[in-house]
Design goal:
Helix content is 35%, strand content 23%. It is α/β, with parallel strands linked by helices. The protein has three domains: 25-76; 83-146, membrane protein fhac (Ubiquitin-like (UB roll), Roll); 149-289, Cell division protein FtsQ/DivIB (Rossmann fold, 3-Layer(aba) Sandwich), CATH 3.40.50. The protein has a nine-stranded mixed beta sheet with strand order 5-4-6-7-8-9-10-11-12, covered by helices on one side. Strands 1-3-2 form a three-stranded mixed beta sheet. Strand 8 (219-224) and strand 9 (229-231) form a beta hairpin. It is rod-shaped.
Length: 295
């Protein structure tokens, strides 16, 4: 016969605090958040009592006092700003970001409005998009997506820096971005992204393009750094630009004493030399038979 197991006569440990209420002991940060929720519930209950017993005026006064007191209590419980983390900031002034956030160390974090901060951050010149979060119990986290300068837009005798969304970046000195491509024309910003992507397909020739002029809202003229103007066609501009790059690699075309290179005809290359009438060369003619090339 098996012996009987001795019954444990020890009394279970007495649960206290959160463990007594929940049956488990939360982490320190979870406990702080629960405390804040409980205090918020107190505000709601007190406000309802004030409304029933004293009317709207008394409700406003009591609710304001209770809110101040409760927020102070949450700060003492640990729900206060101790750290502000900002990611993605390169061109945006850090002082401008902190001024918008207006988050003092030790202030109740529940008074910080992330939605308002987001809206105000997105009014800063370099900020394209902002994500703002309260990470309880003590951190404000900001992630910025900044605007990328794409080109200089010349219009009406002035220059403006435009971004990847074809929008002007306000308050930015164009002189600090002199290496950007200059685009000219009322609708140039909307089409600049596509043009730059096209130019980048031939990097060596891309480095020679200093400006691009939008013609009739339909096509581009490219101004090279030596003064030569290249007329791109409205249709199949990519094929024409590739042809130009090949002619430059094989024949040093743009190094010649030219005024313009007209690529608007798919089967003809029209060259205009300085102080000379334009000459026409079939695009598919062998290089040694192009006797009408300007020298």
């Amino acid at each position: 016969m098996f012996g009987q197991t001795k019954r444990n006569t020890r009394k279970p440990a007495r649960r206290t605090g959160w463990r007594r209420i929940l049956g488990w002991r939360p982490s320190a940060s979870s406990a702080k958040i629960m405390t804040a929720i409980g205090l918020a519930a107190v505000i709601g209950g007190g406000s309802l009592y004030a409304w029933r017993s004293g009317g709207a005026d008394r409700l406003d006064d009591m609710a304001l006092d209770m809110r101040r007191g409760t927020l102070a209590a949450t700060a003492r419980a640990g729900l206060q700003v101790t750290e502000v983390l900002v990611e993605g900031r390169e061109r945006t002034n850090s002082r401008d970001v902190l001024a918008v956030l207006d988050a003092r160390r030790g202030a109740p974090i529940l008074t910080f409005d992330p939605h308002q901060a987001k809206a105000e951050l997105e009014t800063l010149p370099w900020v394209r998009r902002a994500i703002v979060e309260r990470r309880l119990p003590d951190t404000i986290h900001v992630r910025l997506e900044e605007r990328v300068p794409m080109a200089l837009w010349q219009r009406g005798g002035r220059f403006a820096v435009i971004d990847q969304d074809a929008k002007e970046i306000p308050g930015v000195d164009p002189g600090n971005f002199a290496k950007l491509l200059i685009v000219v024309g009322d609708d140039a910003p909307e089409h600049a992204g596509g043009l730059i992507a096209l130019l980048d397909t031939e990097p060596a020739l891309r480095g020679r393009v200093s400006a691009a002029v939008r013609v009739g809202g339909r096509r581009w003229n490219l101004n090279l750094d030596n003064g030569v103007v290249v007329n791109l066609p409205e249709a199949n501009a990519g094929a024409a630009y590739e042809r130009l790059a090949e002619l430059e690699r094989n024949n040093g075309l743009v190094e010649r004493d030219l005024v313009s290179v007209d690529l608007r005809l798919p089967d003809r290359l029209i060259l205009r030399a300085k102080d000379a009438a334009p000459s026409t060369t079939p695009v598919n003619a062998p290089a040694q038979r192009r006797n009408n090339r300007p020298t």
